[in-house]
Sequence to fold (320 residues):
Amino acid sequence: MNAGKIVVLGTGGTIAGKAGSAGDNVGYVAGQVGVQELLEAVPGLMQAAQGPLQVEQVAQIDSKDMEFSVWSDLATRCLRYLADDTVRAIVITHGTDTLEETAWFLQSVLNATKPVVLTCAMRPATAMAPDGPHNLLDAMAVATAPGARGVLAVCAGVVHGARQVQKVHPYRVDAFSSGETGPLGWVEEGYVRWAETCLPALCGRAQAALEKIANGAPWPRVEIVMNYAGACGATVDALVRDGVQGLVVAATGNGSVHHDLQAALERAQTAGVAIRVSTRCAQGQVLPRTGALLPLGHGLSPVKERVSLILELLGGGILA
Ligand code: SIN
Fold:
């Protein structure tokens, strides 16, 4: 498809951040510049978009403060625009801190047969050398690239899939990685070079969950607990008393958990709390062990495992 407009949804982040001086790359306030203004400042953006843009400011936040209500707004808009024949792609500007969670949520609830491209920046808009303008250009290149579909993230010239993308550095401009699977592709001089000649299928489900959210169902409370030296079960017991519905365990290694934490998690499971075991290791995934009493997740990072468990508890089923 070569015609159609691109819808750009702004949510804030460092890409829209402002600092007191051009040399300050850490003491800025995120989510200050409107997404329309950001786009207008990028030379060549309209050529890269190859058609009209429709711009909406969905939120204006630091993504550390991401709320379920923003996810609902984003998903509702994405569903509408994915179904609109006049729209060829969606670009979302987002803070880097929770971008991977939003990407996984959208991948899970949208059956995106068009590209939904998240982009961001590690330097504020006021920086001496902001990376946001180039990332926006690259996002347009991905949005218009033949073969692009599903929820993708682009940062520093690298294209990541929603399942793999993870922020791995708090400062470097090239802050994201796809771990051991590697990126889906790279943007070079406005063109996307895919790592594979064919993109892997990137469709999601859990739309039933999205319908429930749209109908006002409350978001289930799911928390993450980590295993570490000296871990105990007090946090888990307190969370159960406080009404938690699901717990994701960021276990050590291949799903190992301190015996005190293990006992508390088993108590929680008996009390009806849904448990999923993940690993705090940055790469790889937990392999099944015979006799394990706690269910494994789906080989996702703990924060993405949490998104999937939220959707599962909403009744949308798990993304395989
Ligand atoms: C944020 O996540 O909104 C702030 C940090 C960033 O975008 O790099």
Summary: The longest strand covers residues 53-61. The chain has two domains: 5-194, 200-314. Confidence is low (pLDDT under 50) at residues 198-205.
